[in-house]
């Protein structure tokens, strides 16, 4: 405590003033708390505040982005940004935090990480990105994290990991990437091989798909079980509407279809009664394709803007890949505008009111 009062730097005087008011905690930026990190680096004979290791906690602050690196004390060794609403990590987000050893960004809503996001974190040993919405990890994401020992990617949206993604993590010892979407197919063979070769410990990470391998630990997988053979099993596949519909002539009917993106050659196609539906502006048929959650999901939307009786039938969303197809179908009945109505009949009983 006495050592802190010897600080001369203006910025630290503010921190000190707040420390004196608020006990051992101090404010860094808005509501972040800064603590002494039980010094491993600072020896007994070095009383300067500026060389003291700091732990900065910015949890539960509704942060939508990472605070600028300048807002953290010079010797920040631990930075906790968990339980916020951070959506993306931009290039250079942590530049200058060259003493940082532990970065925890779990329980946010990160969907996108720009290449270069972790640049400058040369001392980083532990990185926790668990429980976010990361669907896609660029091969260059982890560049420069040569001292990283522990990486947690559990609870994200990706169903696979691209070859080479961990190449720059030369010090990695522990890895975790449990996910309800994890697809154990031929695209993960490289990873199983790499884990064995590098002697990296993989914790609590089990296949979610295909069903045949569900629950199997990644570390106990035989390479030959990792195939891309038929049948195609998709970790996620939804069509809306999902229930049969009755619609009126002239109405607009939007369909949505979304599936896990598991193969480069994957296509989402639309069929009516087994016949492919193509976009046709004169008939008011529009089809829009997109990639969502950056490469974890592929989506397509079909809109029929002016539905006609001829559109009655089975409407199908088909996911087509070289290893097989998957489909979802709903039955649509179009009522002609000339259709006669009967007066509604009401029934009330102890189960409710029916019309
Ligand atoms: C942080 O370090 C830089 C460069 O070493 C120095 O110029 C600056 O004054 C330091 N800031 C604080 C708050 O100690
Ligand atoms: C990230 O920023 C650095 C410098 O700020 C720049 O040199 C680099 O090209 C950027 N990387 C990407 C992928 O934008
Ligand atoms: C990784 O993250 C998950 C989800 O937050 C957590 O349950 C698990 O304990 C973490 N693993 C390690 C090794 O910290
Ligand atoms: C996906 O990535 C692109 C470019 O990298 C970006 O512009 C877009 O906002 C991202 N979308 C989502 C949903 O993360
Ligand atoms: C998948 O669908 C395509 C047409 O979209 C069809 O030609 C092919 O035979 C189907 N494959 C399987 C395995 O059903």
From TrEMBL:
InterPro entries: Adhesion_GPCR_A (IPR051963), Cys-rich_flank_reg_C (IPR000483), Ig-like_dom (IPR007110), Ig-like_dom_sf (IPR036179), Ig-like_fold (IPR013783), Ig_sub (IPR003599), Leu-rich_rpt (IPR001611), Leu-rich_rpt_typical-subtyp (IPR003591). It is found in: Cell membrane. The keyword Membrane applies. One of its GO terms (cellular component) is external side of plasma membrane. It is a multi-pass membrane protein. Belongs to the G-protein coupled receptor 2 family. Adhesion G-protein coupled receptor (ADGR) subfamily. The keyword Repeat applies. Its main location: membrane. This is Ig-like domain-containing protein. Gene3D superfamilies: Immunoglobulins (2.60.40.10), Ribonuclease Inhibitor (3.80.10.10). Residues 235-333 form the Ig-like domain. Keywords: Disulfide bond, G-protein coupled receptor, Immunoglobulin domain, Leucine-rich repeat, Membrane, Receptor, Repeat, Signal, Transducer, Transmembrane, Transmembrane helix. It comes from Pygocentrus nattereri (Red-bellied piranha). The gene is ADGRA3. It comes from the Eukaryota. GO terms for biological process: Wnt signaling pathway. Residues 1-26 form the signal peptide. GO terms for molecular function: G protein-coupled receptor activity.
């Amino acid at each position: 405590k006495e050592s802190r009062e010897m600080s001369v730097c203006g910025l630290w005087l503010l921190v000190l003033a707040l420390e004196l008011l608020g006990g051992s905690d101090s404010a860094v930026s808005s509501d972040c708390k800064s603590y002494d990190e039980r010094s491993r680096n600072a020896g007994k004979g070095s009383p300067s505040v500026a060389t003291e290791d700091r732990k900065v906690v910015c949890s539960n602050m509704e942060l939508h982005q990472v605070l600028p690196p300048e807002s953290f004390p010079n010797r920040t060794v631990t930075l906790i940004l968990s339980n916020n609403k951070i959506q993306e990590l931009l290039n250079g987000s942590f530049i200058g935090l060259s003493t940082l050893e532990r970065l925890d960004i779990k329980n946010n809503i990160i969907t996108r990480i720009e290449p270069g996001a972790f640049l400058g974190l040369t001392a980083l040993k532990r990185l926790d990105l668990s429980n976010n919405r990361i669907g896609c990890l660029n091969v260059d994401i982890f560049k420069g994290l040569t001292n990283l020992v522990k990486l947690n990617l559990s609870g994200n949206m990706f169903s696979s990991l691209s070859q080479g993604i961990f190449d720059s993590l030369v010090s990695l010892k522990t890895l975790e990437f449990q996910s309800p979407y994890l697809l154990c197919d031929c695209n993960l063979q490289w990873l199983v091989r790499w884990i064995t070769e590098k002697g990296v410990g993989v914790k609590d990470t089990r296949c979610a798909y295909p069903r045949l391998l569900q629950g199997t630990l990644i570390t106990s997988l035989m390479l030959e079980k990792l195939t891309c053979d038929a049948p195609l099993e998709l970790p996620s596949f939804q069509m809306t509407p999902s229930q049969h519909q009755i619609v009126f002539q002239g109405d607009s009917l939007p369909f949505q279809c979304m599936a896990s993106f598991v193969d480069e050659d994957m296509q989402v196609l639309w069929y009516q009664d087994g016949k492919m539906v193509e976009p046709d502006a004169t008939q008011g048929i529009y089809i829009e394709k997109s990639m969502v959650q950056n490469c974890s999901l592929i989506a397509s939307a079909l809109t029929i803007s002016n539905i006609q009786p001829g559109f009655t039938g089975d409407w199908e969303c088909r996911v087509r890949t070289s290893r097989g197809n998957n489909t979802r179908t709903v039955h649509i009945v179009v009522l002609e505008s000339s259709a006669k109505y009967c007066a509604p009949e009401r029934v009330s009983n102890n189960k409710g009111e029916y019309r």
